[in-house]
Design a protein that fits this description.
By secondary structure, the protein is an all-alpha fold. The protein has seven helices and no strands. The radius of gyration is 31 Å and the shape is globular.
Amino acid sequence: MIRLATTLAVAVLAVAGCAGDAETAAPATSEAPTAAVQASPTEITVPAAPEPSEGQKKAFFTTLASVDPALATNQEKALTVGSQVCEKILASPEDPMQFATFAAEQLAVAAPTAEGFVAAVAEWCSPE
């Protein structure tokens, strides 16, 4: 009986020792460390595309109609893709081929038509 009591006492102490001191143990929480939440210094912020004015929209659609009349028929899509192209222009202005490639993919048009689209976007796309 003494042997069983001794074994039980040793087991309890071992478990208590593994649990650590309540004062020094870190509390278990569901919160992430604050370092993971903070933005890193190398994080890039892409500026949002400015909303074109009514006059700019009219000029944009007129230019699109001269590039390819089909581009000007779906004005909502043209403005959506135009805003996306504008964001790319503002984020990386030194890579103009990227803009035309993106526009060609989004609009399902040939490269020359996409280049005309990008040129029309560039008329109203400037940081505010």
